Amino acid sequence: MRRIIHVDQDCFYAAVELRERPDLQGKPVGIAGSSRRSVLTTCNYEAREFGCHSGMPVFQAIKACPTLSLLPPRFEIYREVSTCIRAILRSYTELVEPLSLDEAYLDVSEDSRPAFDVATEIRTRIREETSLPSSAGIAPNKMLAKIASDWEKPDGQFEVKPEEVKDFIKKLPVRKLWGVGPRTETALVEMGVATCADLQRIPPTELARRFGKFGVELRDLCRGKDERPVIPHRPPKSMSVERTFAEFVDNLETASGKVHELYSELMGDLKAKNKSASVEGIFAKLKFSDFTVTTVSKAGERPAMDNYLSLVEEGFLRNDHPVRLIGLGVRLGEETSSEAQLNFLGTLGI
Fold this sequence. Notes:
The protein has 14 helices and twelve strands. The protein is of the alpha+beta class and 350 residues long. It folds into three domains: 1-133, MutS, DNA mismatch repair protein, domain I, CATH 3.40.1170.60; 165-221, 5' to 3' exonuclease, C-terminal subdomain (DNA polymerase, domain 1, Orthogonal Bundle), CATH 1.10.150; 238-347, Dna Ligase, domain 1, CATH 3.30.1490.100. The chain has a five-stranded mixed β-sheet with strand order 5-6-1-7-8. Helix 6 (142-149) links the parallel strand 7 and strand 8 (157-159). Helix 10 (204-211) crosses helix 11. The longest helix has 21 residues, at 252-272. Mean pLDDT is 88; it is low at 336-350.
């Protein structure tokens, strides 16, 4: 039986900023860009009491919480703190799977101590070495561990023991299951399914008919079964950069200038990160003022400026509205030798 810990930093970006700004402790704080069209990257629990949340437009957040203090994001600092936290996690096991800067899975099955005690020690060290709070969930698998980490937030931990899984999962809302988003939840509610106990009563054939392959997975998930292993290294399938513009872009000439800036950044990332994965294709993403999104991609194309300009032009023709975001990226395949990577970068003049 595996023993999995999910460690999640509480309101990570906001917590880092509050560490630097003790005068804001206990007050509602949000992290957001300076543009009037910005959205909240995150906010602390004091702000959430007013209804603020991640992804909320700033003007709405201020309307909901007039005393909200807004701070600009400082991602370099967040990455530095995240690196320190990951070093702590990896001192307990090599089986650490980061999900983002502020959360990760650990497989501590080989540790002789109770997993609950290991999680307590990890959280204590994070607090002592970074002055930041964290929460943890402990369970026999990844899905349940992630669910459990939300149970005693903030700054707490909760364990679902193997013998408790059957009763714990029955009462769980189906929206808590891994992979269940708003659309799937709506479809399940239409079937009279609100909890995992309800879902367990649906025949597997019906789940497969309604949801295809995922329906087969749902049959196991609603019974608390999740066989996904903790994967310590997950090679990236893509690299990309994107920018949301303070002023909408309504013509290709202006867009071309934006593409040049993004292209330079993307090529710099490719070189700086010294990726040995081969580029198998390129893509461009455009988000329009009506919030629709389109992606144009080309397999087998190298990331050259002219190729990206063609993709963006094609994307522009798909919608009559001006553009508020442009992103450029590459699809990555299997790793190649260092020599091949250097040759590839050389063809781009890098």
